[in-house]
Amino acid sequence: MKVALISNPRHRAGDRMEFLLLRAAHWLSRFEPADLLLVTGELTAGNAAPEPGFLEAFYASLARRKSELPVIFPGAVEPVTVCGESLAPAALAGRIREAAGRVPDFETSPFEYLVAEFDGGALPKVERRALIEPELAAQVTDFHIHTSAAYCSENMHVDGALEMAKLSGLGGVSFAEHSGQLYFESDDYWNGRSVWRTRGTPEGCRAIDRSDEYRAELRTPGRYRHGFELDVDRNGDVLLAEKERPLAEVRLGAVHFLVNRSDPREASREFLFYIESLLKYGVDILAHPFRIFAWAGLEKPVELFAPVADLLARYGVAAEVNFHQNQPEHEFFELCLKKGVRLSLGSDSHNLYEVGFFQPHFRFLRELGVAGKLDEVIFR
Fold it and tell me: N or C: which end of the chain has fewer CB within 10 A?
């Protein structure tokens, strides 16, 4: 049984520590699976009461992503079963402390914690790990962060994202809002009517303009870049009004809808058409390149990996490493690297805990063998 222990996070009002705890829970749920997360010591500075809604938001985020990781906070007394033995949380924490010798505080970067592996012996095998890798984080920019203007935002806003980026030690930050969501009502956007060129027609979608909501967010002071995650319609036209172009300092291109989902061959043709339309328009980064196929219930078309990598190389566009409801493909990114395509890192943040959450990305870069040469491969 694997138990993760976080000690003394010491959350203070407004410091965003709760989102680092949330990040740890998601990391231990999806990427470095544990059977239990045990939080001990001071949850808040001086053991003050947490801010209203903190625990509710914490559990809501785990539930939204279907995490089944049990989390025990300070003050809990309900026993837990470890390798057939019933232990109070305090006793379980004591066993881990005894095996570890010293327990790091989860209060400052790199936000260290312990992972204890129980195999039936008296004491567990304990490893010390960190949630942040400052040396790597300082070399990269998170180019894919949403704002409160996104329909899919859970709690995003620019000032909170900037604070999370600082906690994460990021070298840079760039916001990218869904362009299609600025011109379509939520129901029309999520049902794919944005690809049908019927906005503002009698038989089609109602014409709206929410661009001022995005502009308002970008008035927040701070050092960051901004742009769009650009949607494209079925005629290959990018959904961005002329008056929004000055905001597009960084342009991500993305395919969020496929009309021909019932025919894999036609879906692949449609996808390639959208990709080349975005590249001809002039995007800097192709966001979550093949994620749409999994979302559409289709197998990712391996036969398209080389053609898409060729297109990215021809147009000088970066490929985004993205883990937001997505699993990047080693084969595709290896092809990109061979063809000289740069890689961009994107958290695709819809919740503040995701801003700068690059542990999965750094692991992926190590698997590709390029974590030690970011200057050669990372998009700037």
Answer: C
Q: Is 303 exposed, middle or buried (0-12, 13-18, 19+ CB in 10 A)?
A: exposed
Same domain (yes/no): 55, 81 = yes
Segment (H or E) for 252: strand 250-253
Asked if 184 and 199 count as a contact pair (C-beta separation under 8 A), the reply is yes
Q: What sections of 101-195 are H helices per DSSP?
A: 134-137, 158-167, 186-190
Give the Å distances, CA to CA, from 243 to 209, 240, 246, 247, 294. Answer: 11, 8, 7, 9, 34
Report pTM.
0.95
Three-class SS of residue 189? helix
Helix (H, G, I), strand (E, B) or coil at 304: helix
Count of domains for the chain: 2
Average pLDDT per consecutive 10 residues, the chain (380 residues; last block may be shorter): 95 84 96 96 83 82 90 92 92 95 93 95 92 97 98 96 96 98 94 79 84 97 98 93 96 95 94 98 98 95 98 98 97 98 98 97 98 96
Distance CA 229, CA 208 (A): 18
> Coil, strand, or helix at residue 349?
strand
- 98-117 burial string, b = 16+ CB within 10 Å, else e? ebbeebbebbebebbbbbbe
Instruction: Give the count of beta carbons closer than 10 Å to the beta carbon of residue 29.
Output: 18
84: left (phi over 0), alpha (psi -120 to 50) or beta: left
SS3 232: strand
CB-based burial of residue 63 (10 Å sphere; 0-12 exposed, 13-18 middle, 19+ buried)? Answer: exposed
E strands of 295-361, at which residues? Answer: 318-322, 343-346
Q: Mark whether 123 and 141 lie in a shared domain.
A: no
The residue segments making up the domain with residue 28 are 2-130
Q: Which two tokens stand for residue 57?
A: 């938001």
Q: Say how many CA atoms lie within 13 Å of 253 toward its Cβ.
A: 28
Of the candidates 77, 59, 166, the residue with the CA atom closest to the CA atom of residue 50: 59
Q: How many angstroms separate the Cα of 316 from the Cα of each of 53, 210, 283, 286, 343? A: 45, 31, 9, 11, 11
Residue 145 CA to residue 329 CA, distance in Å, equals 21
Cα dihedral 203, 278, 353, 214 sign: negative
